[in-house]
């Protein structure tokens, strides 16, 4: 469950009291991990996987309640930011109401001298972010291609010029980043003090309209004018029969190799400061990646994105050099490989050679046969589903009665009655009422040491609670809890089912 899905009075989850309450629920029921989505400031479509910055954190996850407790805002500021509770995040309303509150808190947080020191201590990423953030506000758009020529790339000189004219705006934006960093670190301290660990996620690609692409154009497949020459995506896979065109710019792995992949080293080091484990999103892309060429109009010379990803091709990254760099600079036991999708022997060999635990999504395991989950590798993280999957209930209800997945699942339940004895199943042909519990029990019976459940599956929720539909740009990342009613009981029930069925050697 992402932080944004927590129940609050401000339209979006945050690092305030409800986040601490959820930690307590998890710890009280014996859970060891809480997995969240990327915390970077989101870009188009409010997607955590299309960030405006590879480093800057999402300011709208700041808790107004903690700001009030810290004496940075007043009660009227809190009241002005209140929004009715609902099952969806109303992003536009959240942005409109939270922005003035955050600006006031930032002004009250640190002195100008202290904020300037904070900027210098984090200058590597913060100065480009602050410059880009300022220009976006001045132009009213984050499309840096539309900026004047002198603003289309970053330099220290440009930062100094912007600071001379818009210093107050820059100091305020830096103060907001200091605030969210402070709340995240305080939260992680509490998480770890309770014996829980946070699993986060590192998006492989960045938004074209991001401060890092704007400031480091030499690292990406761009022409001399900064236009994309190729974009990221995937061919047809389990999530999309037509493939997916993401539109993110492609890395120049040969250029990144020259300085030892410093950009990725900095990103991962930064993320591991506030996370215990880091999932490498789209792990396949570190080995080989799907590159879709941009189409050039022969008459006008303009470059336009293709309609889909079908014209793409697999290209080789620099896996041996890249993973060797990780091995020598970062603790590899803090990474998880998101190795879903189109695997090949080379991807698997690098995953296994460097000891990255991979992932299994149980929804995919019944497509061809009845699985022997007890033989699943111990080092894999097994999920009933992820943020990209339908909820277990939605998945099951959409299976045709005679589909391979449904028939294999039914057979599994029939052949293992003792495993489900506590669920009150009377008709294995229709598991609608208990499918979320069935799948969680199966996952817990597997040989995998670590089992992760989306909260939607813990609660047995349907399609209205899905977090993301891959390949669709809008309408995602909105699901949230209205309140915690039923959550503690559901977590306790799941913990009980797991304890009843967990293989003894993995308890």
Care to describe what's here?
This protein is an alpha/beta fold. Helices cover 39% and strands 10% of the residues. Strand 7 and strand 8 form a beta hairpin. Helix 5 (112-121) packs across helix 6, helix 6 (123-139) packs across helix 7 (156-193) and helix 15 (435-445) crosses helix 17 (487-501). The two termini are 23 Å apart. The relative contact order is 0.11.
Task: Give me a quick take on this structure.
With 507 residues, this protein is an alpha/beta fold. It is 39% helix and 10% strand. It has 17 helices and 13 strands.
Spatial extent as radius of gyration:
23 Å
Strand order, sheet with most strands: 1-2-5-10
| Tally of helical segments | 17
Ends apart, CA distance between termini? 23 Å
- Structural class designation: alpha/beta
What is the global morphology? globular
**Helix content, binned percent:** 25-40%
Biggest sheet architecture:
4 strands, parallel
**Strand-residue proportion:** 5-15%
* Quantity of strands, as a count: 13
Spans with pLDDT under 50 lasting ≥5 residues?
Answer: none
Mean pLDDT: 94
Taken in chain order, the helices and strands follow as HEHHHHHHEHEEHHEEEEEHEHEEHHHEHH
């Amino acid at each position: 469950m992402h932080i944004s899905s927590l129940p609050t009075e401000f339209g979006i989850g945050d690092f305030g009291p409800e986040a601490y309450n959820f930690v307590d629920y998890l710890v009280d029921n014996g859970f060891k991990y809480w997995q969240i989505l990327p915390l970077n400031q989101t870009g188009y479509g409010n997607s955590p996987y299309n960030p405006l910055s590879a480093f800057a954190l999402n300011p709208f996850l700041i808790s107004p309640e903690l700001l009030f407790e810290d004496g940075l805002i007043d009660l009227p500021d809190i009241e002005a930011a209140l929004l009715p509770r609902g099952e969806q995040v109303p992003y536009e309303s959240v942005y409109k109401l939270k922005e003035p509150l955050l600006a006031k808190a930032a002004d009250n947080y640190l002195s100008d001298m202290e904020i300037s020191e904070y900027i210098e201590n984090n200058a590597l990423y913060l100065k480009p972010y602050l410059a880009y953030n300022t220009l976006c506000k001045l132009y009213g758009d984050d499309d840096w291609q539309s900026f004047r020529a002198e603003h289309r790339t970053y330099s220290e000189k440009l930062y100094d010029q912007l600071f001379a004219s818009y210093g107050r705006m820059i100091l305020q934006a830096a103060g907001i980043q200091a605030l969210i960093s402070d709340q995240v670190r305080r939260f992680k301290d509490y998480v770890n003090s309770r014996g829980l660990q946070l699993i986060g996620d590192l998006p492989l690609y960045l938004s074209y309209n991001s401060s890092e692409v704007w400031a480091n154009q030499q690292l990406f497949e761009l022409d001399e004018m900064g236009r994309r020459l190729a974009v990221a995506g995937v061919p047809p896979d389990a999530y999309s029969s037509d493939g997916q065109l993401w539109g993110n710019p492609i890395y120049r792995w040969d250029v990144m190799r020259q300085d030892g992949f410093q950009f990725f080293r900095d990103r991962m080091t930064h993320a591991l400061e506030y996370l215990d484990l880091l999932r490498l999103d789209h792990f396949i892309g570190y080995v080989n990646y799907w590159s879709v060429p941009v189409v050039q109009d022969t008459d006008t010379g303009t470059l336009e994105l293709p309609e889909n990803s079908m014209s793409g091709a697999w290209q080789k990254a620099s896996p041996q050099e890249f993973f060797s760099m990780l091995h020598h600079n970062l603790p590899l036991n803090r990474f998880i490989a998101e190795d879903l999708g189109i695997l090949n022997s080379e991807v698997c060999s690098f995953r296994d050679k460097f000891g990255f635990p991979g992932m299994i999504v149980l929804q995919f395991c019944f497509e061809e046969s009845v699985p022997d989950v007890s033989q699943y590798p111990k080092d894999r993280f097994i999920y009933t589903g992820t943020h990209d999957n339908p909820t277990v209930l939605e998945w099951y209800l959409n299976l045709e009665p005679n589909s391979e997945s449904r028939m294999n699942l039914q057979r599994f339940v029939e052949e293992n009655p003792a495993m489900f004895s506590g669920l009150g199943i009377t008709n294995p042909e229709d598991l609608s009422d208990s499918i979320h519990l069935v799948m969680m029990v199966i996952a817990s019976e597997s040989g995998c040491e670590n089992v992760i459940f989306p909260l939607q599956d813990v609660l047995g929720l349907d399609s209205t609670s899905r977090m993301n539909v891959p390949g669709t740009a809008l309408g995602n990342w909105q699901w949230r809890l209205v309140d915690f009613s039923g959550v503690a009981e559901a977590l306790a029930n799941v913990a009980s089912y797991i304890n009843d069925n967990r293989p003894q050697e993995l308890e």
